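Hi R.,

Quick one: here's the Antibiotic biosynthesis monooxygenase sequence you asked about.
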Amino acid sequence: MTGHVYWMFDLEIKDGEYETFEALMKEMVAATEANEPGALDYEWSVSEDKKTCHILERYADSAATMVHMGNFGKNFGRRFMAVLKPRSVTLYGNPSEEVVKALGAMSPVVMTPVGGFSR
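And here's the predicted structure, written out as tokens:
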């Protein structure tokens, strides 16, 4: 098992906000790729009707996760919440208590690793 931390967000794209969502997503993906080497996976997917978004994020460890969360809050949080309504988050891997606490407002479902591997 690794020290990786990862999650899946299930989000509702607010009515009439798809174009704003798409522009924000592109900005966030570019910033995360350019500035966060500890972000290993950062994948956004949208339902056919463009009303649901899933974001799969995986980080090298809890420290890299907290870097991302700090950048998100400082640069994107307000705009993100203006176009997306969080429905759920499932947290996987080996997050520190700090990570779990930082996601606390989202009431994450925390899944404990019991077997498998990551390459």
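Strands lie at 5-13, 39-46, 52-59, 84-93, 109-110.

Cheers,
M.
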